[in-house]
Design a protein that fits this description.
Blueprint lengths: L9 E2 L1 E7 L4 H11 L7 E7 L4 E7 L2 H4 L2 H6 L4 E7 L14 E5 L2 E11 L2 H10 L10 H10 L5 H9 L4 E9 L2 E6 L8 E5 L15 E5 L3 H6 L2 E5 L4 E6 L2 E6 L8 E2 L1 H6 L5 E2 L2 E2 H15 L6 E4 L5 H11 L7 E3 L17 H6 E3 L1 H4 L3 E6 L6 H12 L4 E6 L12 E2 L13 H8 L3 E4 L2 H7 L7 E2 L1 H4 L11 H9 L2
Parallel strand pairs: 15-25, 18-21, 21-22, 22-24
Antiparallel strand pairs: 1-23, 2-5, 2-11, 3-4, 3-5, 6-7, 7-8, 8-9, 9-13, 10-11, 10-12, 13-14, 16-17, 19-20
Helix pairs in contact: 4-5, 5-6, 9-10, 9-15
Length: 484
């Protein structure tokens, strides 16, 4: 029996690419491994020597999909990879990425992080024109647009096709002996560039003797492969790497940025640098600001691991209350497990988290977490803390109430399933059974991520979207939640 053990938003994928490295596939494997938190349903790598392409992808986590033998088959000095999260019946190998296609402009592979909000309309138009789709992924729309472009040069066709897309997309592509990186004009999802010291490739490869460029969704991938962070792929930019070096091309007019603020709240690993900001520092500042906005008369500060740890450290430092690991996380919970025949209350949460009674007993506890989605897991955790002997439980959330779904590459429930869209803070507090509940203000969150110009997308907290999005139609919700 499968049992859900969390109630969180899920980022729907991570991408990685490497150019001119003798172990391109191995580095891509490591890059995906470092970004496993961005998707656990499937993983894939496409490699190339500039002429012949190799591919392997499967369902499962990175270490399950790739064996040493499989990696040896992925020959070449170019590679891109993808790790994916999906939902609601769309967890099938057919949709695993990178997508690989032979089109009239040559073989092309693409790995995509984001969500194309106009994909359904574009797909219908292309199908009416005779296009035959092999997957239900929105990413495939781009391949058909490139194939049908009148531009004969691949990069020109890519640039033209990107102008037809709307929504969020950070992509890496392989075409011939070139590696491309692309980011949408608003920069919703992160995409960073790195450099590995000079590598020697066999003579005659056509790749020259120079530095190896890498792209990733997060800089934590660079730390593992020994790459130096060089900066971000700019919104509205195509970056091409070839034998002559790195080339930058703007394909769209500059727009006001809409960086995903939830990357800093929850998605990204705390050791990453995203949108030019250190994630761990952002989260500590969230906790400090939360302590200033919503103090409580308590004895200890306890994080809900792992995502609440950095904010709890900040809350503890600002409030002067001691930080304690009052909840211990079991890191070896698989995607499915067998529940005992005799039902155990809150079994899924208990399997993942266990309270430390000696730290909690007879204490007034401030419990810090990054978000509340449906509220079901928070309710179980509060109850578990009480059963461990806590006198009081005060829940503090290091972001504002989440009232709206995301259409830009995040798996979120329907709006009616978001507890904060149906109840006020007092109602949520009563439901979860805490003695008090407080959220970080939107202004406090913006201060924590150093966003004076409001360059971050906060639509999940405000319901105000920076682009046109399909709203209210069930088909659109299925499309949004199932594509990645």
């Amino acid at each position: 029996m499968a049992v859900a053990v969390d109630d969180k938003f899920h980022d729907e994928c991570g991408v990685f690419g490497v150019y001119a490295h003798p172990e391109a596939a191995n580095l891509t494997y490591l890059g995906l491994y470092a970004q496993q938190h961005r998707g656990q349903e499937s993983a894939g790598i496409v490699s190339s020597n500039g002429r012949k392409v190799h591919v392997h992808k499967d369902m499962g986590e990175v270490a399950e999909v790739f064996s040493e033998a499989k990696l040896k088959e992925l020959r070449g000095w170019l590679a891109i990879g993808h790790t994916r999260y999906s939902t609601h019946g769309d967890t099938v190998l057919l949709n695993a990425q990178p997508l690989l296609a032979g089109i009239n402009k040559g073989s092309v592979a693409v790995a995509h992080n984001g969500n194309l909000t106009k994909a359904r309309q574009l797909r219908k138009r292309l199908e009416d024109q005779g296009a035959i789709f092999q997957t239900s992924s929105d990413t495939e729309v781009l391949l058909h647009l490139i194939a049908r472009s009148p531009q004969r040069d691949f990069e020109d066709a890519l640039a033209e096709s990107l102008l037809e897309l709307e929504g969020a997309y950070s992509m890496v592509l392989l075409h011939g002996s070139c590696l491309y990186a692309v980011r949408d004009p608003r920069g919703f999802r992160p995409l960073v560039t790195g450099l590995i010291p000079s590598q020697t490739l066999p003579l005659g490869t056509g790749f020259g003797h120079g530095e190896s460029y890498v792209f990733a969704s997060e800089t934590c991938a660079f730390d593992l492969v020994g790459a130096k962070y060089k900066g971000e792929v700019q919104p509205g930019e195509i970056v091409r790497i070839d034998s002559e070096g790195i080339h930058h091309r703007r394909f769209a007019d500059k727009q006001k940025p809409s960086y995903c603020i939830f990357e800093h709240v929850y998605f990204a690993r705390p050791d990453s640098l995203l949108f030019g900001r250190a994630v761990h520092s952002s989260r500590e500042r969230m906790g400090r600001q939360l302590a200033r906005e919503a103090p409580a008369d308590a004895d200890i500060v306890v994080p809900i691991p792992d995502s609440g740890i950095a904010s709890a450290i900040g809350f503890s430092a600002e409030s002067g209350l001691p930080f304690r690991f009052g909840l211990i996380r079991n890191h070896y919970v698989g995607r499915t497990f067998i529940e005992p025949e005799q039902s155990v209350r809150d079994f899924g949460v208990k399997l993942k988290l266990n309270p430390v009674r000696s730290l909690l007993e007879d204490k007034r506890v401030i419990l810090v977490d990054d978000s509340i989605v449906r509220g079901t897991t928070s309710r179980k955790i509060v109850r578990m803390i009480r059963e461990a002997g806590a006198r009081e439980v005060h829940l503090r959330i290091s972001c504002p109430p989440t009232i709206s779904p995301c259409y830009y590459g995040v798996d979120t429930p329907r709006q009616k399933e978001l507890i904060a869209s149906n109840y006020d803070v007092a109602g949520i507090c009563k439901y979860i059974g805490a003695d008090s509940l407080a959220y970080l203000s939107l202004g406090g969150l913006r201060d924590a991520v150093e966003d004076p110009n409001e360059d971050f997308c906060t639509s999940c907290y405000t319901g105000k979207y920076p682009t046109k999005v399909p709203r209210g139609a069930p088909a659109d919700v299925v499309e949004r939640r199932g594509n990645r």
